[in-house]
Design a protein that fits this description.
391 residues, alpha/beta, 9-stranded mixed β-sheet, 6-stranded mixed β-sheet, 13 helices, elongated, binds adenosine-5'-triphosphate, binds magnesium ion
């Protein structure tokens, strides 16, 4: 009996006239994701997407997991496709019983073919009766609060029987809201920030700042590993790498120590916006969380934010570290993030960083530097690494 994957749309079901646009992006994302598991036809009817294997060589389990990690999908299930008659539907019932792992169930039937000889309540009754008789008292019907919902859908050409639906990844299809440039460090927060914004439909590119030889090749590899890990959700990621070594050495010898970090962060933000401009990213994304460290107080964020020429998305801003860690564990970046390699932010860090900077003081310190020259020189070091989702 043929098995297929059924997906229910998430939020994009609400998008009215734009729905076709969102749906098309979602179907393309799915097509790319399941390609490594065989050839699948992907089509949508009403609010369901069908991921339909063309032959037995397709790996349905692999494709199911890939669909589950694709943003834009609220629910996912495996269904048996049968001919459009009750005998065939009943023949599928024993197949779905292993998926009913609860004590109670109910059956929902839908007929888009109104010429089908039985009405929905009758289909429910017959299928429910069959489940009860096969399971011999192990299961009970509960129409109000069922543990598992069994669905029978009678379509124009065939019928589907499925039990249980898992949550999908939610959110909106990657690429449906443009591209964001993620400031990706080796820490815990920024990979989570990238994941969260991909969930809101952004395609993700990344920029990483390093400070060789104060930061090592291992630190760079760690960041590329993190990019690979979030690409499971975000899709392929291009990582731009920029060296801050010279800027940091000049600043160490020139500016007051307490302003060092904030001046560095202003350089990072300007360089990130310049990268975003060149590579067509409408926003930049950081893993900042209010008050987490000296450079993330409201005043510190203000003096950094002011040099940005596009929206800065900070999805972790209102989260506790523990909440961020929970997501990092879920998306499997945590263990990599805690590897103890140095980050350019920890090179020449001040003993007493300024937590309540006033812009005039920052500008006065910055005036000691050839900002444009240093920025141009750093930008000229940009190199690009393309990270594929797998392989
Ligand atoms: P994370 O855990 O992501 O490293 P953090 O708590 O260490 O964050 P900071 O080091 O102050 O905080 O950095 C705040 C944000 O600035 C990071 O989340 C990231 O978006 C950006 N950032 C910091 N260092 C770098 C870097 N070397 N390259 C690119 N972006 C960086
Ligand atoms: Mg960090």
């Amino acid at each position: 009996m043929k098995e297929i994957i059924l997906l229910k749309f998430g939020e994009l079901a609400l998008k009215g006239a734009n729905r076709d646009f969102f749906e098309k992006i979602l179907r393309n994302n799915l097509k790319r994701r399941v390609a490594e598991f065989g050839t699948f036809k992907i089509y949508s009817i009403q609010s369901t997407i069908y991921v339909d294997p063309v032959d037995d060589s397709c790996d349905l389990t692999g494709a199911y997991e890939a669909c589950k990690n694709t943003f834009g999908i609220a629910g996912i299930s495996r269904a048996f496709e049968t001919e459009k008659n009750m005998d065939a539907v009943l023949a599928a019932v024993p197949q779905i019983i292993p998926n009913i792992n609860t004590k109670t169930f109910k059956v929902i039937a839908k007929r888009s073919d109104k010429k089908f000889p039985l009405e929905s309540p009758e289909i429910c009754q017959i299928v429910g009766g069959e489940i009860l008789s096969i399971t011999k008292g192990r299961l009970k019907v509960d129409v109000h609060n069922p543990g598992t919902t069994v669905r029978v859908e009678v379509r124009d050409n065939n019928a589907f029987v499925t039990a249980g639906q898992e949550f999908g990844a939610g959110g909106m299809p990657v690429g449906s809201n443009g591209t964001g440039l993620l400031l990706l460090s080796g820490g815990i927060d920024s990979p989570v920030a990238g994941y969260m914004m991909a969930k809101r439909g952004l395609r993700i590119e990344a920029v990483h700042f390093e400070s060789f030889p104060y930061t090592s090749e291992r630190a760079r590899q760690k960041v590329l590993s993190l990019a690979k890990q979030i690409s499971e959700y975000c899709g392929d990621i291009t990582v731009h790498i920029i060296s801050l070594t010279h800027i940091q050495e000049v600043m160490r010898d020139t500016v007051q120590e307490e302003y060092f970090t904030l001046l560095l962060r202003r350089f990072m933000m300007r360089l990130a916006c310049r990268t975003a401009e060149e590579f067509d990213c409408g926003a930049v994304i950081t893993g900042e969380s209010l008050g987490q460290v000296a450079s993330q107080t409201m005043k510190a964020l203000a003096v950094t934010n002011i040099v940005a020429d596009r929206p800065v998305f900070r999805p972790c801003i209102g989260m506790d570290k523990e909440e961020i860690v929970q997501i990092a564990r879920k998306i499997d970046t945590f263990e990599t993030s805690i590897l103890p390699y140095e980050d350019c932010c920890t090179v020449f860090t001040p003993r007493h960083p300024q937590t309540r900077p006033e812009l005039p003081f920052i500008l006065a310190e910055e005036a000691k530097l050839d900002v444009q020259g240093l920025e141009d020189e750093a930008y000229a070091t940009l190199t690009t690494v393309r990270i594929k989702r797998r392989g």
